[in-house]
Design a protein that fits this description.
It contains 13 helices and two strands. With about 280 residues, the chain is mainly α.
Amino acid sequence: MSIADRLRASLVGEVRALFNDTARGEAPVQRSDDALIPPGSVAWRVHGDVTTMMIGGMSALMLQMLHPAALAGVWDHSDFRADMIGRLRRTARFIAQTTFAERAEGEAAIARVRRIHAAVSGAMPGGALYAADDPGLLAWVHVAGAMQFLEGWRRFGEPGMRRADQDRYFADVAPVARLLGADPVPETRTEAERLIAHFRRELQASARSREVAHIVLDLPARGARHAAIQRLMGQAAVDLLPDWARAMHRRPASGLARPAVDAATYGTASLLRWAFASQDR
């Protein structure tokens, strides 16, 4: 085995260990021609990139948690404070199953999430009630997540992405959102931007939302190299947030260091694309 092949194998092994809970018997999701989202779609392109999905996922969670009902559901019914890596891993697996896996596996994943949502309800600190299966709340979680995944891909994967392909991405992921119970569901970027603007009046920053952001950006790392990569990706995730969301979290942008952060992140993403390309030979 050549040095390049050993490097590829090492990188792929590290990523797969991060995303798959081997203690629970998890293995990488297998791609199917009979997936909920068809092969060759824009969503396959966006969701298939490891680095941009990691950055987009962290950014998405920080954005989603600005909605007090979404935050309350996670705060009251999740073990995120003890296992944020597990939560991010489960989210990544769900996206992989509903994007790439055989249709029955994707549908089973959706049914499992719907059962969980049905049991998640309560009262927010101010006394207002929330329910995780509320169609409007699911619409917020969906549009915030989809937008940040797309923005991560645009910034570090395909900077010149055509607007038509961005629209196509929202159309690709819309059926999954509807199966989860979300309503309304955008099918173009313009519709997504309008929906986010609509939700802004409901968003709030709090000590709780900032604690979630802190945990997301301060994940435990295995050694100095992993810690440096996590800091880089964490800053990239903060930079990916809309200016108003970053201000609500009281998180500074990279500023003058932005070109260096972007270049290092793009380089990391390119290295992992090179490593995973060998898996498709």
